[in-house]
Amino acid sequence: MKDTDTAIPRTLPIQSATFTNEVNAEIRRAAATGIYDIRGGGAKRRVPNFDDLLFLGASVSRYPLEGYRERCDTSVTLGTRFAGNPIELDIPITIAGMSFGALSGPAKEALGRGASAAGTSTTTGDGGMTPEERRHSSKLVYQYLPSRYGMNPNDLRQADAIEVVVGQGAKPGGGGMLLGQKISDRVAEMRTLPTGIDQRSACRHPDWTGPDDLEIKILELREITDWSVPIYVKVGATRPYYDTALAVKAGADVVVMDGMQGGTAATQDVFIEHVGLPTLACIRPAVHALQDLDVHREVQLVVSGGIRSGADVAKALALGADAVAIGTAALIAMGDNDPKWEAEYQKLGSTSGAYDDWHEGRDPAGITTQDPDLAARLDPVEAGRRLRNYLKVMTLEAQTVARACGHNHLRNFEAEDLCALTMEAAAMAQVPLAGTDWYPGKGGF
Which listed CATH number (3.40.50.2300, 3.30.70.100, 3.20.20.70, 2.40.30.40) goes with 41-444? Predict the structure, then answer.
């Protein structure tokens, strides 16, 4: 047999790590349509997150608390700096702003029911306040956004707090979108828009361009509400130290810091995946800004963006936050992305675990839609009950971890309770790498 007759096995070609199937598919889609990709949800890329941190439970150097015999309190007060009536919450988990328009009427009602049953607050989102939402929310935060959709002084005076939205974690520096399919007659009336026409929100407030103007706006809102309700300022996580410091100097009672894992009803995919900081990376700089201004705990810090469990809540509090806000997780708890609708998600070209075309208004679960037949599928009472249960479980999980670390209140968590599993997480959270007393940037080893 000649050497040339010997069969040489061929290896399969290796796919490019740069031009993956997903990247190639997006290039082809862009080439075919000439339109950038718009979607909802949050970032899908893997970034350092709360899973990269672990708690150091108590043993000899610190004693744990007995779970069935020793209390672990969960209450938090937001707005203690200037507001005459701060918000008293039973738990440090709030519901983030999600608009009527992005969500159905029954979904907004369910959010109010669930939050109220759990003793916490919910938030209006873009598009104004609905009577159902106000009626079923014991504590309602009114979002004051660049669009000014639905904004009027009467609703401001009905709110328990006002949140001035400067930016969101999924799209810092950009505005949201609401496709015409979701602009029903009622949505159009509330937003003073034509029915069925695509809408794009402004990326900045029309009447101010910087921190000095923000101070004037906050004073205006305080005068409208007789200085009674807390004023929050919400920013997307990009420059957390300076944005927090400027919000404080402008007179904010509460700073809401929204990381890039935060969801959105719809924006450009390039925003969701390539703009902003991971939630884990924005907490410590914001806390340092509050500490440097000597207002840490006087001005409360609420962290949002990818919070999923009681462990996430506990880790955010340990890094210096006073409370957290959830959005996507609340929708899932109420029934969104439920596998029972898988056949219908498949018909939409998606799957229950990855559905992010909320902006198109065909959500089989009846949550992110304005279609009356689909919206009728959601029972707001049952969905509210599910949300209450979820909030209860998150709180119990956070209490369990707190007791294990020797704390009798969730506010007593501290960074010393944590260690990091990766160098990236250690640097971002500024807690020691597991097994050491060092993190990148601290110096020494």
Answer: 3.20.20.70
Confidence (pLDDT) at 424: 97
Measured between alpha carbons, how far is 205 from 164 in angstroms, rounded to an integer? Answer: 10
Question: How far apart, in whole angstroms, are the C-alpha atoms of residue 57 and residue 405?
Answer: 5
Long-range CB contact pairs, 144-147, < 8 A, 24+: 144/221, 145/201, 146/175, 146/201, 146/202, 146/203, 146/204, 146/205, 146/206, 147/175, 147/191, 147/201, 147/202
**Distant-in-sequence, close-in-space partners of 183: CB < 8 Å, separation ≥ 6:** 101, 191, 193, 194, 195, 196, 197, 198, 199, 370
Six token digits for residue 207: 């009447």
Asked if the model's pLDDT at residue 26 lies above 90, the reply is yes
CA–CA separation, 430 and 244 (whole Å): 18
Cα–Cα–Cα angle for 328, 195, 142, rounded to 5 degrees: 45
Is residue 339 scored above 90 in pLDDT? yes
Burial (CB count <10 Å: 0-12, 13-18, 19+), residue 105: buried
| Rg for the chain, CA atoms, rounded | 23
Extract the tokens encoding 170: 């999924």
- Measured in degrees and rounded to the nearest 5, phi and psi for residue 49 equal -145, -170
Cα→Cα distances 107→17, 71, 117, 218, 331, Å: 41, 34, 15, 30, 8
The domain ranges of the chain are: 41-444
Query: What is the average per-residue pLDDT within 400-408?
Result: 97
